[in-house]
Amino acid sequence: MSAPDHEVVVIGAGFGGIATGVELRRQGIEDFVLLEKHHGIGGTWWANTYPGIAVDIPAIYYSFSYEPFRSSRLFPPGHEVQAYAEHIVDKYGLRDRIRLGVTFTGARWDENTHLWHLDFADGSQLTCRYLVPALGILEQAKLPEIPGIEKFAGKIVHSSQWDHDYDYTGKRIGVIGTGASGLQIIPEMAKIASHLTVFQRTPIWLAPKPDIRIDWGLDRALKGAVLRKAVRYTIATALDAALVVGVRALGATPAAIPYVTRAAQGATRIWLRDKELADKLVPSYAPGCKRPSMSNEYFRTFKRKDRVALVTEKMSEITDSAVITADGTSHELDVLVCATGFRVCERGFAPGMPIHGMGDRELGDYWHENHYHAYEGVTVPGWPNLFLVCCGPNTIVPSSILTTAENNAILTSRAIAAARRRGATRVEVKQQPFDDFARMCVERAEGSMWMAAPCAGSNTYYVNYQNELAIRPTTVLSQWRAARFLRTRDFTFHALPSTVLAGTTVEADLAGAGSK
Q1: Where on the phi/psi map is residue 389: left (φ > 0), alpha (ψ -120 to 50), or beta?
Q2: Phi, psi at 36, each rounded to 5°
Q3: In the prediction, which pLDDT does 513 show?
């Protein structure tokens, strides 16, 4: 029986893939490769280079626990995050394991050989024992579905595909979208446009951004292990507390939500000090329904009313030179910037290509028909040797995505290492632990405000297209513990008869070997 091309194939060389590579090597697993469709590493941070891009999590927490992030600011700009990814790859010896410009198109499980057969856009194929999609969630760009958009004769650019060769200076620029990328792009476009028109569909909750320079010595101090761990722990604890108290507790006491919402609305109106803008920019849904954003410039930008217009009427049509809104107004433009995000929590968004498991079942179809769940957000019964590091259902804790990626990479590498120790060629989560985790997610979702009336109209990606909670309704600590204290009893381990693994013949059925 032929050996696989690689023991482990990781799809993606963003932070999820990089974290997986580091953890595989820590477990002594060396036969792996990271396949990346882009021509550079970093995933989202390689692809997204729009003006103003930055992190909304402090660098000390938007980093892996084992490697300090030396940044110039408390909230580092995008190019520094990209540099951090390059640093990790080089320091942990992953550069020669990465293959760039390789587009993965699908996979099929072979039960006879306990191998995954992978297909790629150029027609090539690979086999592997373990398949680890690490594709992230900000992967599939989403253009606005507005009639006539294909007719626009000016410049159209999506935030994730920024054209740096085009000169935007002095142009009439329109921006569709006021989410995380929009609130960073809009102030930058306002500085160079002859006129900026912002088309807002859903207002966002905003907080001031306490961004300061830290490269005067604070960055070096935060590199120290003791201080760094203490600060990270404090941030993680604060976010966990906000999750438990601010969201789940509010869900348990719905009568308090209107008061919290009105207080937040009042504070925002005081911040704006402009009734006309406040009527457009203050959300009606409750704080916490969507991931909160921070900016010191976003609100200020709309006060430049001679050069910046905020439009909240529905966009009904796009012509060759303008966006037409429902009130009949024609907004003439030279450039249309689509800060409209990505296909997140829509059908087929993760992993975004067909993955056929046992009985030739396709994963996306399975989730569509049987609800959107994975054990610890990482693996599903019926899809052996498949681990979704970044990002499966119920895996993202509303904090730092790098923390989630690191935790999931640890769980994945330890599951694979456990199989290797047992001489197994197949590892699969049992149905009962999968069901138990799914049930916990459903029960906590039902008791949260995310699924309740206060979040209606928020258009949050916390809830998927099936109206089910897509994020993980637990604390970071819970995810950390599950990854580092892997419950091998939740898995079954099997070996093929007469399978040759690293030169050793194994004849065993290890279905019950996970009890220790």
Answers
A1: alpha
A2: -125, 130
A3: 36
Q: What is the pLDDT of residues 67-123, one digit of tens each?
A: 999 899 999 999 999 999 999 999 999 999 999 999 999 999 999 999 999 999 999
CA dist., res. 5 & res. 120, Å (int): 14
Predicted TM-score (pTM) of this structure: 0.91
Distance between CA atoms of 112 and 383, rounded to whole angstroms?
Answer: 14
Contact between 388 and 377 under an 8 Å Cβ cutoff? The reply is: yes
CA distance 351 to 139: 10
Out of 237-251, 298-312, 351-365, least confident range: 237-251
* Those residues with Cβ within 8 angstroms of residue 183's Cβ, 6 or more apart along the chain or in another chain: 204, 206, 293, 295, 298
Helices (H), 379-488: 401-421, 431-446, 476-484
Residues 6+ apart with CB under 8 A from 108: 116, 117, 119, 356, 360
Distance CA 161, CA 172 (A): 20
What is the distance between the alpha carbons of residues 220 and 16, in angstroms, rounded to a whole number?
Answer: 26
Residue written as token pair 């899809």: 383
